[in-house]
Specification:
- The chain has one domain.
- It starts with a helix and ends in a 6-residue tail after the last helix.
- It has 232 residues and is mainly alpha-helical.
- Helix 2 packs antiparallel against helix 3 and helix 2 packs across helix 5.
- A two-stranded antiparallel sheet has the order 1-2.
- It is globular.
- It comes from Massilia cavernae.
- Keywords: Hydrolase, Membrane, Protease, Transmembrane, Transmembrane helix.
- This is CAAX prenyl protease-related protein.
- GO terms for molecular function: endopeptidase activity.
């Protein structure tokens, strides 16, 4: 028993599985910082639009390099009922996201992303943006927020913790941080709570990934259709 206790005490606070989920997320944040710094040094927003493609490419590379650590993604089986619940949740989150936009529900102002050149929409730029938002960001963010952080708050040995065993501390802290990661903090909290519930209920990361992907994908279509570029 003493040896077991010593082994637990000596376990690293962040193991390889943790870093495999943290580094893609930090890569994404790094490019946000780069864009902000370039803008402060006088770069025009139009000149920074293709930085998004570089950012998504870098995140994809990180996810590929660490793919062996994402063992929970190996089993992509998600029952039909769970998949429907995830899709409905993703659609509801979208409606709430574009509705919870009062001034007091936002922190600062989002820079937006306007793929328009000389009055014409650059459809390649739109395709890259929706691809990244719907297919790359959900995987990266769910691996960080749900798979890692929500469980790690409960125990450093987070991979051994079944999602259904997450307590209120991990749930609440993740919702708060996920919310304030976004300009629309209240909408972010609602989305974070919804994705958390899917993960806890279905015990599969594919459930929140599916919901998150639908939310982001439909949001992209709505943005292009309405010209509400500030939501990007």
């Amino acid at each position: 028993m003493a040896d077991a206790g010593r082994g637990a005490a000596d376990a690293p606070l962040l193991n390889r599985a943790a870093w495999a989920r943290i580094l893609p997320f930090l890569t994404y944040l790094f490019f946000l910082l780069v864009a902000d710094l370039l803008a402060r040094f006088g770069w025009h927003a139009d000149d920074l639009r293709w930085l998004y493609a570089v950012k998504i490419g870098a995140v994809m590379l990180m996810l590929f390099l660490f793919r062996k650590h994402y063992t929970e993604l190996y089993d992509a089986s998600l029952g039909a009922r769970a998949a429907i619940v995830a899709l409905v949740t993703g659609a509801v989150v979208l409606v709430l996201w574009i509705s919870l936009d009062a001034d007091w529900m936002a922190v600062g102002s989002a820079p937006g992303f306007k793929p328009v050149t000389d009055g014409r929409i650059d459809w390649l730029m739109v395709a890259v943006r929706i691809f990244g938002a719907a297919l790359v960001v959900p995987v990266m963010e769910e691996l960080f927020w749900r798979s890692f952080l929500m469980r790690w708050i409960e125990t450093p040995d987070f991979e051994r913790l079944d999602p259904s065993q997450v307590k209120w501390k991990g749930f609440a802290i993740t919702v708060l941080l996920f919310g304030f990661e976004h300009n629309l903090w209240l909408a972010g909290m609602v989305a974070g709570a919804a994705y958390n519930l899917l993960y806890v209920r279905h015990r599969s990361l594919w459930s929140p990934i599916l919901a998150h992907a639908l939310t982001n994908g439909l949001l992209g279509v709505w943005i292009v259709y309405t010209g509400s570029w500030n939501y990007w």
